[in-house]
Task: structure prediction
Amino acid sequence: MEYFSHDSAVIDDGCSIGKNTKIWHFSHIMKDCEIGNGCNIGQNVVVSPNVKLGHNVKVQNNVSIYSGVICENDVFLGPSMVFTNITNPRSAVIRRDSYEKTIVSKGASIGANATIVCGNNIGAYALIGAGAVVTKDVKPYSLLVGNPAKQIGWVSEYGHRLVFNNDNKAKCQESNQWYEFNNNEVKRIS
Result:
C-alpha cells in the first residue's frame, strides 16, 4: 500500500488510490472511485462511486463527494461544504441514473459550508467563499460569495484579490505573477 488510511476508514474494493494520499478517521471511500497522488481526505468524508479526484486534492472534514463530481488537481474542499447530484430529489423516486456532472477545475477552492448545486462547473483557480450557494457556472479566477453566490471580483492562483490598473493588468501580491482582464475574463500572462 502506497497510501495511508486510518484504521477506522472504510475502503471498498475497486478503488484507485494514489501514492502518498492520506485518508483519515471514519471516512468511506466507495467502489470504483479514483483518488490521485498526495491527496488528503479528512475525517468523516464520503467519496461516492465513480468520483474522480486529481492529485493534491485537499478534502476537509465532513464532506460528501457524490457520484458525478470530478475534482481536478490542486482542488481544496473546505470543511462541511456540500455537493448535490440531483436537481429535483424525491425520496420516493429513484434517480440514480440521473446524477448530474460537476467539474471543479484545477486549483479551485471552495470554502467551509458552501453548497455547489449539481451541473454547475467551477473554473480554474476560482475561490468560493464560506457559506456561498453556487447555482450557476463559475468563471476561472473569479471570487464568489453569498446566497445565491455572486461574483465580487477576481483572484490570483495564490488566492489574493486582483486589482486591475488602467491597462487591465494586475499583479499578485504574493507570487508577483501578472494577470490580464479582457472580455470579462482573466488569464495569467506571466
Q: What stands out?
A: Residues 89 and 95 are 8 Å apart (CA to CA). The longest strand covers residues 150-154.
